Amino acid sequence: HNKNLGPSRLGRDRIEKLNEIGFQWRLRPERIPWDDRFKALKRFKEEHGHCRVPITVPDLGKWAKYQRDQYSLFMRGKKAKINQEKIDRLLSIGFE
């Protein structure tokens, strides 16, 4: 136990045991590339016939909402983290 919260050293055996049980070393999950999410959206459309992903669908629902929000900002001339190329790709598969 380190009261000062300074550096702590784990032995290799402890690190291996933590890895074996699926310990998450990062506080935030790794970012999934936009293209991978887009491919998942295309698969969703193939399965469901539309791109209206419910927010309850893990990860993809939040991503789809974020794309809509960014599209809205972009169309109003506001600063957005989406560009015309991504918008064109989304629209090409019927994203609303």
Architecture overview:
It is a single chain. The chain has 96 residues and is an all-alpha fold. Helices cover 51% and strands 0% of the residues. The chain has helices at 12-20, 34-48, 60-75, 84-92. The longest helix is centred in the C-terminal third of the chain and has 16 residues, at 60-75. It starts with 11 loop residues before the first helix and ends with a helix.
Summarize this entry quickly.
By secondary structure, the chain is mainly α. The protein has four helices and no strands.
In terms of topology, how is this protein built?
Layout: H1 12-20, H2 34-48, H3 60-75, H4 84-92
Q: Give the rounded overall mean pLDDT.
A: 88
Helix content range: 40-55%
Outline the low-pLDDT stretches: 1-5
State the secondary-structure class: mainly alpha
Number of helices: 4
- Please describe the biggest sheet, giving its number of strands, its sense, and whether it closes into a barrel: none
What share of residues are in beta strands?
under 5%
End-to-end C-alpha gap: 53 Å
Choose one word for the global shape.
elongated
Q: What brief labels describe this structure?
A:
single chain; about 100 residues; mainly alpha; 4 helices; elongated; disordered N terminus
